[in-house]
Amino acid sequence: MPLDLEWVSKVRVNTQAVLKRAQQIQGRNKNKKQWQAAWLLRAVTCIDLTTLAGDDTPGNVHRLCMKATQPVRYDLLKSVTTAAVCVYPSRVADAVKSLKAANSSLPVASVATGFPAGQTSLKTRLEEVRMAVEDGAMEIDIVINRTLALTGQWEAMYEEVCQFREACGEAHMKSILAIGDLVAMMAGSDFIKTSTGKESVNATYPVAIVMVRAIRDYFLKTGHKVGFKPAGGIRTAKESLVWLTLMKEELGDEWLSPRLFRLGASSLLADIERQIYHHVTGRYAAYHQMPMA
Ligand SMILES: O=C[C@H](O)COP(=O)(O)O
C-alpha cells in the first residue's frame, strides 16, 4: 500500500498498560499433560530452526536440515517438521541441497540485507536478497535500515523495503525490528520480526504486544494479515507456550500456524523435545539423548 505517514504519526503506546498485559500473559497457559504436549507440538511446527554462526559449514547446515525434517526423536513422534530452516545467504545452497536430497519440501529462509547490522550499501543488500532467492531461499528475513528508522526518515525506509520486496519476488519477506513496524508492513512485509538475535535485548513480551497490535491495526485497516516472528534468546519450552498464548490472546487462533507465526530460534527445540520425551516416557532425557540430527 502507499505510505500513510498520518497513520504512523498517530500511533501511541501506553507503556504501563503494555507492561501489565505482558505480565498477565506470562501467567496464562497452565495446561498440563496432553494439552501441554499438544501446545508444544504446535510450537515445533512454528519454529524457523536457525543457525547463524560465523563457523557454519555445509556439515552443520546439513545436520540442522535433518533435525528440521525430524525435530523430535523418531520413536516418539513422526510426521511433524519445523516451519523452515534459517541460514545465512552463503549457506542457502547447502540447505536447499540437503533438503532436496532428503526429499523434503521444507522452505529455506535466509537472513539478508547485511544481517545483523544492515550497514552495507543498498546495492549490496539488494544483491544479497536476489542471490539468496536465486540459490533457492523461499523466505527472506530482511533487516530494516535502522539508521533511517532512528532518524525518522520513514519515506526513505519505505522505499528501501519496497525495493527488498521486489527483489524477493515470490519469496516471503520477513522484516526484522520492532521499530518502524507500520512502515515495514505498508511496504509489503509478509512478516514482522522482533530482532536479529544478535542484540543484547531481543524478543521481549512488551515489545511483542506493541508489534502484534500494530499487526491487528493493520489488518483492521487493510484486511491484510501480516505474520509475526519473535526471535533471539528463546530457549525454553515454557517460553514457547507464552509466545503461543500471546498470539492466541492478541490475534486469535488464525495466528497460531506457521503461515502467520514463527519462532526464530537456534536452541529452543532441544528443550521442547525433552518435554515431549518426558510426556511420553515419564522420564527426563539428558540433552545428549536429543541429538541435533
Ligand atoms: O533469527 C533468529 C535468531 O538469530 C535466533 O536467535 P537465537 O540464536 O538466540 O535463538
From TrEMBL:
Keyword Nuclease belongs to the record: no
Pathway assignment: Carbohydrate degradation; 2-deoxy-D-ribose 1-phosphate degradation; D-glyceraldehyde 3-phosphate and acetaldehyde from 2-deoxy-alpha-D-ribose 1-phosphate: step 2/2
EC id: 4.1.2.4
Superkingdom of origin: Eukaryota
Predominant cellular place of this UniProt entry's protein: cytoplasm
Catalytic activity: 2-deoxy-D-ribose 5-phosphate = D-glyceraldehyde 3-phosphate + acetaldehyde
GO BP field: carbohydrate catabolic process; deoxyribonucleotide catabolic process; deoxyribose phosphate catabolic process
Enzyme superclass (EC): lyase
Molecular-function GO terms, alphabetical: deoxyribose-phosphate aldolase activity
SMART domains recorded: DeoC
Keywords tagged on the record: Cytoplasm, Lyase, Nucleus, Schiff base
Family: Belongs to the DeoC/FbaB aldolase family. DeoC type 2 subfamily.
Matches recorded under PANTHER family: DEOXYRIBOSE-PHOSPHATE ALDOLASE
Descriptive protein name: Deoxyribose-phosphate aldolase
Organism: Oncorhynchus kisutch (Coho salmon)
Lineage, uppermost ranks: Eukaryota, Metazoa, Chordata, Craniata, Vertebrata
